[in-house]
Amino acid sequence: MCTSIIYTAGDYYFGRNLDLEVDLGQKIVITPRNKTLEFREIPNLEHHYAIIGMSIIRDDYPLYFDGINEKGVGMAGLNFNGPAHYFPVQQGKDNIASFELVPYILASASSVNEAKKLLANANIANLNFSDKLQAAPLHWIVADKTGASITVESTIEGLKVYDNPVGVLTNNPEFPRQLVNLSNYRGISPTAPENTIAPEVDLPVYSRGFGSHFLPGGMDSESRFVKATFAKMHTPVGNSEVENITNYFHILQSVEQQKGLDEIAPNTYEYTIYSDGSNLSKGIFYYRTYENSQISSVDMHKENLETSELITYRVQNQQEINYQN
């Protein structure tokens, strides 16, 4: 399970929590402009936009969980087990495997509108990367540096592309139902509510934060969708890049999954392995991990983006504590 957001604070910040039960050995991976991207059913891309994000690498191929490109477009794939449905290769369609979709979009789209055009004739083909790496059931969020975002879902009904007015994505159910469910929480507010149940009775507000009394706090995807939407819609804009990225990570932290709270099998627990976020205008990738709460960053523009080999950075997992005495 996962949560992805785009946060508006002058610049736009895009990224996600990755919630799994096992660390997959991910790295920060930069795919430079001249690294050939190979696809199973469509032409390879020898020249394209540079990409940075969190990924594993297999056979010199970046399998991105999420990332951004140099034009300020971000994309993340989130678990969508159940509704997700991929199709056989279809003649006359742009057949793209699920593991290819993030690099395919980020390599060529300079905006959400361009991503929509690339998806207009797309078919998410039921192709595995290998026998050991089967196609994961996913749906996707795409966002850009104007603040626009869309949700992409391939279900039994076909490929659907939805405008995403809240800039949030979690997991099941399908995106339109997540939006409808938000209506159940229209009254949630950062301010104390008026007494409308019994106006003539003196009903004390016995705690601060009473306006959020009915805000859901579970680990389930519907609860995280509501809580992340509430948090990002009311998080203030900072006065600096450091303030903004700190605020951004606090939004994701509001829906973080701690170890021991979400059992998916006997003695096996899902947790937030990492949180990341990128400044879509500056191309700076930030992240923190469950083991290391310090924010680290990699600036894609400090690398040679004209090369043809993947550039990788090891994830910093060791906790850094500032001992003051």
What is the H/E string? EEEEEEEHHEEEEEHHHEEEEEE
CATH superfamily: Penicillin V Acylase, Chain A
What share of the residues does DSSP label as strand, in percent?
25-35%
What is the structural class? alpha+beta
Helix share, percent? 10-25%
Shape: globular
In CATH terms, what is the architecture? 4-Layer Sandwich
- Overall pLDDT confidence: 96
Number of E strands: 18
Q: What is the number of helices?
A: 5
CA-CA gap between termini: 40 Å
Radius of gyration: 20 Å
CATH class: Alpha Beta
Unreliable spans are: none
Give a quick account of the main beta sheet: strands, pairing sense, barrel closure.
Answer: 8 strands, antiparallel
GO molecular function: hydrolase activity
Pfam family, one: CBAH
Keywords: Hydrolase, Lipid metabolism
Pathway: Lipid metabolism; bile acid biosynthesis
Topology at a glance:
Layout: E1 2-9, E2 11-20, E3 27-31, E4 51-58, E5 61-69, E6 73-79, E7 94-97, H1 101-108, H2 112-119, E8 122-125, E9 138-144, E10 149-155, E11 158-163, E12 168-169, H3 175-182, H4 221-234, H5 241-253, E13 263-265, E14 268-269, E15 271-279, E16 284-289, E17 296-299, E18 311-313
Parallel strand pairs: 7-8
Antiparallel strand pairs: 1-2, 1-12, 2-15, 3-4, 3-18, 4-5, 5-6, 6-9, 9-10, 10-11, 13-14, 15-16, 16-17
